[in-house]
Amino acid sequence: MDKRTIDQLDVREKRVLVRVDFNVPLQDGAVTDDTRLKAALPSLRYLIDGRARTMLLSHLGRPKGKVDPELSLRPVAVRLGELLDLDVKFAADCVGPLAEQAASELEPGEVLLLENTRFHEGEKANDPGFAQQLASLAELYVDDAFGSAHRAHASTEGVAHHLPSAAGFLMQEEIENLSRAIHKPDHPYIAILGGAKISDKIGVVRSFLDRADTLLVGGGMANTFLAAMGYDLAESLVEAEVIDTALEIQRVAGEKLALPTDLVVADAFSEDAAHRTVAVDEVPAGWRALDIGPQTVASFTQALDGAKMVVWNGPMGVFEFRKFAEGTRKIAEAVAAVEGVTIIGGGDSAAAVNQAGLADRMTHVSTGGGASLAFLEGKTLPGLAALDDR
Ligand code: ADP
Ligand code: MG
């Protein structure tokens, strides 16, 4: 990576402001999924062992620039303390007197979590004054919030302009792995795309068309391509407004693009709907496609055989419903069996791979949904771009 990394900073006794992504689910004042906290531990342990004065910044939810006690990071400090086996201090504001006081009392080796950055309007506005206030707390800045790197906010971008900066270990790992899918990938390179809508992912489709040898498309996204070819998808999710785009992509892609040949259809969009498998030209009136069928699974699995690089974004069906999770699970197994590099991007795709218990068998499962998509599209991530070069 061409950016400076945390291990290239002299952190000893320094005040280090670290942007993490602690946007975790909370229930009744407790963290219900601490995956994102665990993902930050390598950087945090490094700073603690290096006797830094570590100050953590994160957003949580969407408080719209106002204090919302429901979206306080306080419960996160408790859980993080358990994971680090250390008393994580907490300041009830991320700037101003409360933050300054807590920062000034911090000893080497201690960790302080600052309150939700989005309690201030200046965060999302990337207000230079607010960024300056954040920066004034510290001597160094580390960005380990890969999941927020696609947003130019004060704590992810603005603050980096005021302090010597570096990428944390999570950021580094994400960028190094995802870069393999963008720069000089190995071939055969197979991209798998799914999820709900084409319109969310046109940039990713085009990026993969440029880079990959084969594009396997499933999920809701495939419906629009099939509809563009003239199939009647009945009540399936089809985006009429991007049919022309779908046709144009198909023309450019030619043989590269593989679509489902059979579908699992349901008589309602629900967990306990009646369902059956049909060919793509047999979707019954009033029914909708919620998964790819076994014939499609078999042909996609065959296409993955011998792949040197696989990138997957977007589930093959409505995997949240057990009956319609089969296609996604089977494709996850096929990807896990690939001996080449396998990279999973996208929030729901990562959830599906975790749900299938296959995360350990992939080369890399990204922790950032929107950020991994933006990166795979070939976009510059503002949070990364703002960091000092190596
Ligand atoms: P990711 O978060 O991995 O980028 P998306 O958010 O694009 O993935 O897509 C995931 C969503 O797509 C899931 O909620 C899933 O239920 C939905 N989906 C997949 N296939 C279909 C389908 N055939 N019809 C409707 N929704 C679908
Ligand atoms: Mg999603």
Nutshell version of this structure?
By secondary structure, the protein is an alpha/beta fold.
Description:
The chain starts with 14 loop residues before the first strand and ends in a 5-residue tail after the last helix. The strands form four sheets. A six-stranded parallel sheet has the order 5-6-4-1-7-8, with helices on both faces. The chain has a six-stranded parallel sheet with strand order 11-10-9-15-16-17, sandwiched between helices. The chain has a three-stranded antiparallel sheet with strand order 13-12-14. With 390 residues, the protein is an alpha/beta fold. It has helices spanning 35-49, 74-84, 96-105, 121-124, 128-135, 169-182, 202-211, 219-228, 243-253, 294-304, 326-337, 347-355, 369-376, 382-385; strands at residues 15-19, 26-27, 30-31, 53-57, 89-91, 111-114, 140-143, 165-167, 189-193, 214-217, 257-258, 262-266, 275-279, 288-292, 309-313, 341-345, 364-365. Strand 16 (341-345), helix 12 and strand 17 (364-365) form a beta-alpha-beta unit. The chain is elongated and about 70 Å long. 35% of the residues lie in helices and 17% in strands. Adenosine-5'-diphosphate binds next to helix 8, strand 14 and helix 12.
